[in-house]
Amino acid sequence: MVQAVRRTLLDLGKGIRVYAVQPLSTHVVRSYAQFRWLTTVLTGFGLLALLLAAIGLYGVIAYRVTLRTQEIGVRMALGATRHDIFREVLGHGLAIVLVGVAIGEVVTAALTGVVGSVQEGIASTGLSSHVTVGLIWVAVAFAACYVPAARAARVDPLVALRYE
Hints:
- The chain has helices at residues 2-12, 24-31, 33-67, 69-77, 82-118, 127-153, 157-161.
- By secondary structure, the protein is an all-alpha fold.
- α5 runs antiparallel to α6 (127-153).
């Protein structure tokens, strides 16, 4: 159809030049290229932030378990089960994240209105977006806290009492 379109355009007027004929889909793809690139970069930074937060949380919980090894041994010697120790360590890590998610959601809700009034095109997101982001953070926190919690649950009371 390129030749037919070219002939029709040339028949419309003598000053019309037709250099390159491309499908509309090509123009649409090109028009969104910058937006797609920016979205990819921001997604990459977001995933990097999520990874760094998970590594940081893992480090904090693992360090806390290391410091409390003797206490965990005493608790296990006095009758605490491995499940109790696992739940306590995991619960502490998840509590930190739940507080952070709650604070983040409040700040996001407040700043979305402010930024939306300054920058056109930024609108408040729906509840499902906030719930999804919160669940992602909790899932990452669970994964980051699972290994230190499992290690704390495997502590041998006799070895822990002799620790340090």
